[in-house]
Structures are given as C-alpha cells and as structure tokens.
Automatic annotation (TrEMBL):
<keyword id="KW-0812">Transmembrane</keyword>
<feature type="transmembrane region" description="Helical">
    <location>
        <begin position="226"/>
        <end position="247"/>
    </location>
</feature>
<dbReference type="InterPro" id="IPR001626">
    <property type="entry name" value="ABC_TroCD"/>
</dbReference>
<feature type="transmembrane region" description="Helical">
    <location>
        <begin position="96"/>
        <end position="116"/>
    </location>
</feature>
<dbReference type="Pfam" id="PF00950">
    <property type="entry name" value="ABC-3"/>
</dbReference>
<keyword id="KW-1133">Transmembrane helix</keyword>
<feature type="transmembrane region" description="Helical">
    <location>
        <begin position="40"/>
        <end position="60"/>
    </location>
</feature>
<dbReference type="GO" id="GO:0071281">
    <property type="term" value="P:cellular response to iron ion"/>
</dbReference>
<keyword id="KW-1003">Cell membrane</keyword>
<dbReference type="InterPro" id="IPR037294">
    <property type="entry name" value="ABC_BtuC-like"/>
</dbReference>
<dbReference type="GO" id="GO:0055085">
    <property type="term" value="P:transmembrane transport"/>
</dbReference>
<comment type="similarity">
    <text>Belongs to the ABC-3 integral membrane protein family.</text>
</comment>
<feature type="transmembrane region" description="Helical">
    <location>
        <begin position="186"/>
        <end position="214"/>
    </location>
</feature>
<feature type="transmembrane region" description="Helical">
    <location>
        <begin position="67"/>
        <end position="84"/>
    </location>
</feature>
<keyword id="KW-0813">Transport</keyword>
<dbReference type="GO" id="GO:0043190">
    <property type="term" value="C:ATP-binding cassette (ABC) transporter complex"/>
</dbReference>
<dbReference type="GO" id="GO:0010043">
    <property type="term" value="P:response to zinc ion"/>
</dbReference>
Length: 374
C-alpha cells in the first residue's frame, strides 16, 4: 500500500525522492572517505555544522534553509581546514584532530542553540530538528537543490576520476606524478562537506556520518573495483532512503532519518557477513576449503617423498606416513581420510593395506613444486 502511495501521495513521494537522492549522493562521495580511511570525517563535519546553523539564524533571523545550510557548510569546512592544518603542522594524528574538532564544534553548536531557544522569538522553533533530521519537512525546492548538488558532485567526480583514484589508493605516487595533491584533497574534502550539509535536513547532525560511511562500507564488500563500488554504494544509499521512508510513513511518530540509518546499517552488516569473497561467512568457507586442500597436498607430498627415497612398489603403511607428518600432528584417522580422497581423485592407490602414489599424483606434486619455485 505504501509503495503505491509513493506515486499518489505528494508528501511521501517528495520525502522518498529526497531520501533516495541523499543516499545516492552520500554513497558515491562516501566511497572515497572509506578508501582513504577517513571514516570519522563524516561525524566531524556533520557535528561541526551545528554552530554554523545557529550563527546563520542569528545573522539572518530567518529559517530559510538555503541560509542555514550555507552556514552549516562554512562551519563544517572551517572545522576540516583546522583539522588539516593541525595534522600538517603538528604530530597530532588525523583521527585525533577530527575527534577534537567534533567535540569542540558540537559543544559550541549546542551552546548557540540553547541561547537561541531563550530568545523571545517564536521564529527559532524547529532548529533543534537538525539534530536528528526532519525529513517530513522536505519541499519540492529542497529536492531540486539536492538534485543540482548531487549532479554537480557526480560531474566533478567524473571529471577528476583519475586524480581522485590516485589520491585514494596511492597519494605518494599521485604527488610524484606531478598532480596538485593538496588542491585535489581540498576539492574532495569540500565535496564531502557539501554532501554532508545537504543531508542535515533529512538525517540530522547526529546520524549523517552513517549515511557517508555505511553505504560505502557495504559496497566495498562486494567489489574490488572503484567504479563498481561507487555505483553500488549509491544504489544501497538510495534503496535505504526509499525503504526507510516507507517504514517511517507506515508507523505513527516514527522519524524518517533514524529509520534510514538503521536500514543502511543493516545492509552494511549483512554485506559484511554474506558478500562473496570478502564476507565473513565466505571467508570462513574459503579458509576451510584451503585447509582441506593443504591437508591433501601434505599427505600426497609425503607419499611422493617416500616413493623417491625408497621406491617400494608394494607401497607404504599409514604408520610410515604418520612418522613423516610429525610437524603437522596429523592423526592416523586424518591421514587415512585424506588417502581415501586421493584415491578417489586417482592421485594415490591402495594395494592390500599399503598406499602408494600414482603417476598422476607425482605429476601434480611436481607441477605444484615447479609453481612454488617460480
């Protein structure tokens, strides 16, 4: 029913579209923050934007969203500028500087908001909504602004694709190749700040960092290619925005922003477990298979060594293999199980109670040793 309402209900359609746009923008630009191990930047910028919102209101006396977001952008950008200079001119690590600015600016923002709430003017009501977002207040003009901002971010990412890629994966090579690494870092950081500020009205200061990081973390589990990662992250972000809007609209007094964050966080957690190749479950399966392969190769290699050293046509007893397996502490039962598997594969053969390696088995070990030597 709610899915149908997206097309018929103006408010629901507006909120869903705005949330989807925010998710797509955040996922795309957040991929670079994750790859550059700057996960805390979203938290720092979103919290640092709060005093900018308060100051913008005090200066203009208006809750016009454009002025408030401009103040948030300036405040967030100043915080990152200070962080970069602290890191550059001192021994303070990047994450420590980010954490410090996060606390200082957020504390300042709360002080300013508290002061504003005490002003005898009803116009200040609603500013606290920026803490957790107020997606239900999105208007058509807000969606247009988000679309323009998102299009601009995607355009710049496409234009500087090669440069941003080098900056993310190998900044040292990027610098020695003659690229203006400081300017590129400034542009990329500015784009991240813009994306974060754009989402404050929807998700809020407290939760916006999850929208920057979670889609990219989820997408990283599914691919090793940057272009695919950016696309998947944008899709995950958009999907979480739509689903979060639908869930919040179906339950009374359930805020949209937090629900969106819960959805995208769930997608990230699920991806961490089930994504092929990098997921925890797949990795455990792969490790288990690798262990089985290793056990098989060890037993086959010992058969090969025994054959080369004594060349008994009658074969060798399991106890002979057990002695040669001392450093791996294989049990007789384990060796026997591996021998049976080798027999099925045609790599070993059983003669009465003795075992020997086949020509096929010898060829496989020699190929394996040859590959290791290369």
């Amino acid at each position: 029913m709610d899915l149908i309402n997206i097309f018929s209900d103006y408010t629901l359609r507006t909120v869903a579209l705005g949330s989807a746009l925010l998710g797509a923008i955040s996922g795309a630009i957040g991929s670079y923050a994750v790859l550059r191990k700057q996960g805390l930047i979203g938290d720092a910028v979103s919290h640092a934007a709060l005093p900018g919102i308060g100051v913008a209101f005090l200066l203009t006396g208006s809750k016009n969203i454009e002025w408030l977001l401009l103040g948030a952008f300036i405040s967030g950008w100043i915080a990152i500028y200070i962080v970069n200079n602290i890191t550059k001119h001192s021994r303070t690590k990047y994450d420590s500087a980010l954490g410090t600015m996060l606390s200082v600016f957020f504390g300042l923002g709360l002080v300013i908001l508290t002061y504003i709430q005490k002003i005898p003017d009803s116009n200040q009501a609603g500013l606290e909504g920026f803490l957790f977002g107020q997606a239900s207040t999105l208007l058509k003009r807000d969606i247009i602004v988000m679309a323009i901002v998102g299009g601009g971010i995607i355009f710049i990412i496409t234009l500087l694709w090669k440069e941003f890629k080098l900056l993310s994966f190998d900044p040292e090579f990027c610098q020695v190749s003659g690229f203006p690494i400081d300017k590129l870092d400034l542009i990329l950081t500015t784009l991240i700040v813009i994306a974060i500020v754009t989402g404050l009205q929807t998700v809020g200061v407290v939760l916006m960092s999850a929208m920057i990081i979670a889609p990219a973390v989820a997408a990283r589990q599914w691919t090793d290619k940057l272009s695919i990662m950016v696309i998947i992250a944008a899709i995950f972000g958009a999907i979480s925005g739509i689903i979060g809007t639908l869930i919040s609209s179906s339950t009374r007094n359930l805020p949209t922003g937090p629900v969106i964050v819960v959805i995208i966080s769930s997608i990230a957690i699920i991806s961490l477990f089930i994504a092929p190749g990098r997921g925890i479950i797949w990795r455990k399966i792969r490790d288990k298979n690798n262990k089985k392969q290793l056990n098989r190769n060890i037993v086959l290699n010992n058969l090969y060594n025994l054959n080369k050293s004594s060349n008994k046509s009658s074969g060798y007893k399991i106890e002979d293999l057990s002695i040669s397996q001392h450093e791996y502490s294989f049990s007789i039962k384990t060796i026997e199980e591996e021998l049976r598997k080798l027999e099925v594969l045609g790599l070993a053969e059983k003669n009465n109670n003795n075992w020997n390696i086949t020509r096929k088995g010898m060829n496989e070990i020699e190929e394996l040793r040859g590959g290791l030597e290369e």
